[in-house]
Amino acid sequence: MNRDKIIILGSGSSVGVPRIDGYWGRANKNDLKNNRTRCSIYIKYKSLNILIDTSPDIRSQLLKNKITKIDNVIYTHDHADQTHGINELRPFFWKNKKKINVYTNKSTAKTLYKSFAYLFIKKSKFYNPILKMNIIKNKFFIRKNKNKFFFEPIIVSHGDTNANGYIFKKIAYISDCSFISKKEIKKLYNLNILIIDCLKFKKHKTHLNYYEAIKYIKILKPKKTILTNLHSDIDYKKLKNKLTKLTNNIVPAYDGMKIKI
Ligand SMILES: [Zn+2]
User: Fold this and answer.
1) Distance, CA 205 to ligand 1 centroid (Å)?
2) How far from chain centre, in Å, is Cα 193?
3) What's the pTM?
Protein backbone atom coordinates (compact mmCIF):
# COMPACT_ATOMS: atom_id res chain seq x y z
CA MET A 1 0.00 0.00 0.00
CA ASN A 2 1.99 2.99 -1.27
CA ARG A 3 -0.89 5.43 -1.01
CA ASP A 4 -1.50 7.97 1.74
CA LYS A 5 -1.99 6.02 4.93
CA ILE A 6 -1.52 5.63 8.65
CA ILE A 7 0.28 2.66 10.14
CA ILE A 8 -0.35 1.80 13.78
CA LEU A 9 3.26 1.09 14.73
CA GLY A 10 2.45 0.21 18.32
CA SER A 11 -0.89 -0.57 19.99
CA GLY A 12 0.30 -1.62 23.45
CA SER A 13 0.28 -0.11 26.92
CA SER A 14 3.38 1.37 28.59
CA VAL A 15 5.16 -1.97 29.18
CA GLY A 16 3.98 -3.64 25.96
CA VAL A 17 2.57 -7.14 25.51
CA PRO A 18 4.27 -9.39 26.45
CA ARG A 19 6.02 -7.50 29.20
CA ILE A 20 9.85 -7.60 29.34
CA ASP A 21 9.65 -10.57 31.74
CA GLY A 22 7.49 -12.57 29.34
CA TYR A 23 4.17 -11.95 31.09
CA TRP A 24 1.20 -12.15 28.65
CA GLY A 25 -1.62 -11.66 31.16
CA ARG A 26 -4.97 -12.62 29.60
CA ALA A 27 -3.69 -12.19 26.04
CA ASN A 28 -3.26 -15.40 24.04
CA LYS A 29 0.42 -15.61 23.16
CA ASN A 30 -0.31 -17.68 20.05
CA ASP A 31 -2.21 -14.81 18.45
CA LEU A 32 0.28 -12.47 16.72
CA LYS A 33 -2.16 -9.58 17.10
CA ASN A 34 -1.59 -9.72 20.87
CA ASN A 35 2.11 -8.93 20.38
CA ARG A 36 1.96 -5.21 21.11
CA THR A 37 4.73 -2.64 21.16
CA ARG A 38 4.37 0.80 22.71
CA CYS A 39 1.96 3.34 21.12
CA SER A 40 3.02 5.27 18.06
CA ILE A 41 1.68 5.91 14.56
CA TYR A 42 3.27 6.74 11.21
CA ILE A 43 1.52 8.99 8.70
CA LYS A 44 2.45 8.95 5.04
CA TYR A 45 0.87 11.74 3.02
CA LYS A 46 2.27 12.45 -0.44
CA SER A 47 5.95 13.27 0.17
CA LEU A 48 5.47 13.77 3.93
CA ASN A 49 6.60 11.14 6.44
CA ILE A 50 5.36 11.96 9.94
CA LEU A 51 5.67 10.09 13.23
CA ILE A 52 3.43 10.66 16.22
CA ASP A 53 5.59 9.78 19.24
CA THR A 54 8.89 7.91 19.39
CA SER A 55 8.31 4.85 21.54
CA PRO A 56 11.13 2.77 23.08
CA ASP A 57 10.29 0.25 20.29
CA ILE A 58 10.71 2.71 17.41
CA ARG A 59 13.72 0.99 15.82
CA SER A 60 12.02 -2.38 15.48
CA GLN A 61 8.71 -0.73 14.52
CA LEU A 62 10.24 1.16 11.58
CA LEU A 63 12.31 -1.83 10.42
CA LYS A 64 9.31 -4.14 10.57
CA ASN A 65 7.15 -1.76 8.54
CA LYS A 66 9.98 -0.90 6.10
CA ILE A 67 9.73 2.82 6.85
CA THR A 68 12.90 4.44 5.57
CA LYS A 69 12.01 8.14 5.74
CA ILE A 70 10.98 10.38 8.65
CA ASP A 71 11.06 14.17 8.38
CA ASN A 72 8.68 15.33 11.12
CA VAL A 73 7.80 14.10 14.61
CA ILE A 74 4.79 15.14 16.70
CA TYR A 75 4.54 14.35 20.42
CA THR A 76 1.36 13.72 22.39
CA HIS A 77 2.98 14.05 25.85
CA ASP A 78 6.22 13.54 27.71
CA HIS A 79 5.82 10.04 29.17
CA ALA A 80 8.67 7.57 28.63
CA ASP A 81 6.63 5.20 26.45
CA GLN A 82 6.00 8.07 24.00
CA THR A 83 9.41 9.71 24.00
CA HIS A 84 12.29 7.39 24.88
CA GLY A 85 12.97 6.28 21.31
CA ILE A 86 13.94 9.86 20.38
CA ASN A 87 17.68 9.13 20.13
CA GLU A 88 16.96 6.60 17.36
CA LEU A 89 16.03 9.48 15.01
CA ARG A 90 19.71 10.22 14.31
CA PRO A 91 19.96 8.30 11.00
CA PHE A 92 17.12 10.42 9.56
CA PHE A 93 19.10 13.57 10.33
CA TRP A 94 22.07 12.07 8.50
CA LYS A 95 19.87 11.11 5.53
CA ASN A 96 17.87 14.36 5.36
CA LYS A 97 20.99 16.50 5.92
CA LYS A 98 18.85 18.82 7.99
CA LYS A 99 17.28 18.89 11.44
CA ILE A 100 14.10 16.94 11.97
CA ASN A 101 11.18 19.13 12.97
CA VAL A 102 9.56 18.25 16.29
CA TYR A 103 6.10 19.60 17.15
CA THR A 104 4.64 19.54 20.64
CA ASN A 105 3.15 21.64 23.43
CA LYS A 106 5.17 23.77 25.83
CA SER A 107 5.29 21.34 28.76
CA THR A 108 6.37 18.33 26.66
CA ALA A 109 8.99 20.55 24.98
CA LYS A 110 10.34 21.46 28.42
CA THR A 111 10.78 17.79 29.39
CA LEU A 112 12.38 16.92 26.05
CA TYR A 113 14.86 19.81 26.37
CA LYS A 114 15.70 18.69 29.90
CA SER A 115 16.01 14.95 29.25
CA PHE A 116 17.50 15.03 25.74
CA ALA A 117 19.23 18.42 25.60
CA TYR A 118 22.04 17.10 23.34
CA LEU A 119 19.54 16.42 20.55
CA PHE A 120 18.47 20.09 20.42
CA ILE A 121 21.52 22.07 21.56
CA LYS A 122 25.20 21.67 20.65
CA LYS A 123 26.85 20.02 23.64
CA SER A 124 29.91 18.46 22.02
CA LYS A 125 32.16 19.50 19.14
CA PHE A 126 31.84 15.94 17.82
CA TYR A 127 28.04 15.65 17.73
CA ASN A 128 25.53 17.95 16.08
CA PRO A 129 22.02 18.52 17.40
CA ILE A 130 19.55 16.72 15.14
CA LEU A 131 16.16 18.13 16.14
CA LYS A 132 14.39 21.48 15.82
CA MET A 133 11.63 22.21 18.33
CA ASN A 134 8.36 23.82 17.23
CA ILE A 135 6.02 24.63 20.12
CA ILE A 136 2.41 24.39 19.04
CA LYS A 137 -0.76 25.57 20.72
CA ASN A 138 -3.37 25.81 18.01
CA LYS A 139 -3.87 24.41 14.51
CA PHE A 140 -0.62 24.01 12.59
CA PHE A 141 0.57 22.53 9.34
CA ILE A 142 3.58 20.59 8.19
CA ARG A 143 4.81 21.37 4.71
CA LYS A 144 7.12 19.62 2.28
CA ASN A 145 7.44 21.04 -1.24
CA LYS A 146 3.87 21.89 -2.26
CA ASN A 147 2.28 19.44 0.17
CA LYS A 148 0.68 20.74 3.36
CA PHE A 149 -0.76 18.59 6.12
CA PHE A 150 -2.91 20.25 8.79
CA PHE A 151 -3.17 19.16 12.43
CA GLU A 152 -5.45 20.39 15.18
CA PRO A 153 -4.31 19.57 18.72
CA ILE A 154 -6.86 18.80 21.40
CA ILE A 155 -6.04 18.72 25.09
CA VAL A 156 -7.24 15.72 27.10
CA SER A 157 -6.72 14.69 30.73
CA HIS A 158 -4.31 11.80 31.27
CA GLY A 159 -4.48 11.15 35.01
CA ASP A 160 -2.89 14.10 36.78
CA THR A 161 -1.32 15.44 33.61
CA ASN A 162 -2.55 16.44 30.16
CA ALA A 163 -1.83 14.90 26.78
CA ASN A 164 -2.47 16.16 23.29
CA GLY A 165 -4.66 14.32 20.86
CA TYR A 166 -4.43 15.30 17.18
CA ILE A 167 -7.09 15.72 14.52
CA PHE A 168 -6.11 15.49 10.85
CA LYS A 169 -8.10 14.63 7.70
CA LYS A 170 -11.22 13.83 9.80
CA ILE A 171 -9.17 11.35 11.82
CA ALA A 172 -8.43 11.79 15.55
CA TYR A 173 -5.56 10.11 17.39
CA ILE A 174 -6.02 10.09 21.17
CA SER A 175 -3.69 7.43 22.55
CA ASP A 176 -3.48 8.47 26.20
CA CYS A 177 -6.58 9.86 27.83
CA SER A 178 -8.65 9.57 31.00
CA PHE A 179 -11.19 12.35 30.34
CA ILE A 180 -12.24 14.68 27.51
CA SER A 181 -13.76 18.04 28.40
CA LYS A 182 -16.94 19.36 26.79
CA LYS A 183 -14.92 22.07 25.03
CA GLU A 184 -12.67 19.51 23.35
CA ILE A 185 -15.49 17.04 22.66
CA LYS A 186 -16.99 19.63 20.28
CA LYS A 187 -13.94 19.29 18.03
CA LEU A 188 -14.42 15.54 17.68
CA TYR A 189 -17.77 15.30 15.92
CA ASN A 190 -18.05 14.16 12.28
CA LEU A 191 -14.90 12.05 12.31
CA ASN A 192 -14.25 9.36 9.76
CA ILE A 193 -11.89 7.54 12.13
CA LEU A 194 -11.33 7.82 15.86
CA ILE A 195 -8.26 6.08 17.29
CA ILE A 196 -8.70 6.12 21.06
CA ASP A 197 -7.24 4.85 24.33
CA CYS A 198 -8.86 1.68 25.74
CA LEU A 199 -6.39 0.34 28.29
CA LYS A 200 -8.35 -2.44 29.94
CA PHE A 201 -11.77 -3.44 31.25
CA LYS A 202 -11.17 -2.37 34.86
CA LYS A 203 -11.23 1.29 35.80
CA HIS A 204 -7.83 3.01 35.62
CA LYS A 205 -6.67 6.35 37.02
CA THR A 206 -4.81 7.59 33.96
CA HIS A 207 -6.49 5.87 30.98
CA LEU A 208 -9.94 5.23 29.57
CA ASN A 209 -11.19 1.74 30.16
CA TYR A 210 -13.40 -0.15 27.70
CA TYR A 211 -16.69 1.19 29.09
CA GLU A 212 -15.49 4.81 29.14
CA ALA A 213 -14.15 4.53 25.58
CA ILE A 214 -17.51 3.13 24.41
CA LYS A 215 -19.29 6.01 26.19
CA TYR A 216 -17.29 8.58 24.19
CA ILE A 217 -17.80 6.64 20.94
CA LYS A 218 -21.56 6.72 21.50
CA ILE A 219 -21.44 10.50 21.96
CA LEU A 220 -19.09 11.20 19.05
CA LYS A 221 -20.44 8.64 16.54
CA PRO A 222 -17.35 8.42 14.32
CA LYS A 223 -17.75 6.32 11.17
CA LYS A 224 -15.08 3.93 12.45
CA THR A 225 -13.23 3.54 15.77
CA ILE A 226 -9.95 1.80 16.51
CA LEU A 227 -9.16 1.00 20.16
CA THR A 228 -5.49 1.32 21.12
CA ASN A 229 -3.06 1.40 24.09
CA LEU A 230 -4.21 -2.13 24.93
CA HIS A 231 -2.99 -3.78 28.14
CA SER A 232 -2.24 -7.49 28.63
CA ASP A 233 -5.69 -7.80 30.27
CA ILE A 234 -7.14 -7.53 26.77
CA ASP A 235 -7.05 -10.41 24.28
CA TYR A 236 -7.45 -9.30 20.64
CA LYS A 237 -9.91 -11.98 19.58
CA LYS A 238 -12.04 -11.77 22.74
CA LEU A 239 -12.30 -7.98 22.45
CA LYS A 240 -13.08 -8.22 18.72
CA ASN A 241 -15.89 -10.71 19.37
CA LYS A 242 -17.30 -8.54 22.16
CA LEU A 243 -17.29 -5.51 19.83
CA THR A 244 -18.88 -7.44 16.95
CA LYS A 245 -21.90 -8.13 19.15
CA LEU A 246 -22.20 -4.38 19.74
CA THR A 247 -21.48 -2.93 16.29
CA ASN A 248 -19.37 -3.55 13.20
CA ASN A 249 -17.52 -0.23 13.21
CA ILE A 250 -15.34 -0.52 16.34
CA VAL A 251 -12.23 -2.70 16.16
CA PRO A 252 -9.16 -3.28 18.33
CA ALA A 253 -5.83 -1.99 16.99
CA TYR A 254 -2.90 -4.27 16.31
CA ASP A 255 0.72 -3.55 15.47
CA GLY A 256 1.19 -2.99 11.76
CA MET A 257 -2.49 -2.14 11.12
CA LYS A 258 -2.79 0.05 8.00
CA ILE A 259 -5.50 2.68 7.54
CA LYS A 260 -6.16 4.50 4.28
CA ILE A 261 -6.31 8.28 4.63
ZN1 LIG B 1 1.18 8.52 29.09
Assistant:
1) 11
2) 14
3) 0.97
